[in-house]
Amino acid sequence: MTQAEIGRDDRIMAAIAHACAIMLGMGVIGAIVIWATQKDRSRYLAFQALQATVYQIVGIAATMLGWFCWMAIYFASFIPLMAAADRGGEPPAFFWFSLLLMLAPMAFTGLWILGGLWGAIRCLSGHNFKYPIIGNWLEQK
Predict the structure, then answer these.
(1) Among residues 18, 63, 64, 134, which one has the fewest Cβ atoms lying within 10 Å of its Cβ?
(2) pLDDT category, 22, cuts 50, 70, 90?
(3) Which tens digit of pLDDT belongs to each residue from 62-102?
(4) Cα angle for residues 88, 92, 95 (degrees, 5° grid)
(5) Does 133 reside within a domain?
(6) CB of 38 closer than 8 Å to CB of 45
(7) What are 45-70's pLDDT values in tens digits?
């Protein structure tokens, strides 16, 4: 489908479906609603809204996994921390490292949101946007 064939309303709805990523988890509801109510409108809009939905579901799952892994490492750092407290020493480097690791899931979430916004910008400008792995997988279905 070329840029000229994509209607203005379809581009706006597709962009909104992708931009819902900024709502951190709740945005998937918006993408699902757009896909469910507009999928018969055009093939472009159906694909973009479905892609945005899957992208956000994967993002939620990956973010939750990242936070779970961080919490496991953080709580594991309490063992040497308590041993150091018994000796009256400074907190071990592993404790500070585990605190610093908190930035990893935060950064991932920020990048994931930027990916959704990039999809929104591309759709708004009328391009046939595809996320690298998700788009190819959905195209084969």
Answers:
(1) 64
(2) very high
(3) 999 999 999 999 988 888 888 777 787 788 888 889 989 99
(4) 120
(5) no
(6) yes
(7) 999 999 999 999 999 999 999 999 99
Q: What is the residue type of 38?
A: Q
107 found inside a domain: yes
Instruction: Examine residue 138 and state whether it is found in any structural domain, yes or no.
Output: no
Whether 69 is in a domain gets the answer yes
DSSP letters along 72-128, please? HHHHHTHHHHHHHHHHT-PPPHHHHHHHHTTHHHHHHHHHHHHHHHHHHHHHHTT--
Q: Which residues fall within 8 angstroms of residue 49, CB to CB, at 6 or more apart?
A: 13, 14, 17, 31, 34, 35, 38, 39
| Domain around 28 | 3-128
**Tokens 């093939």 identify what position?**
43
Tokens of 83: 């041993």
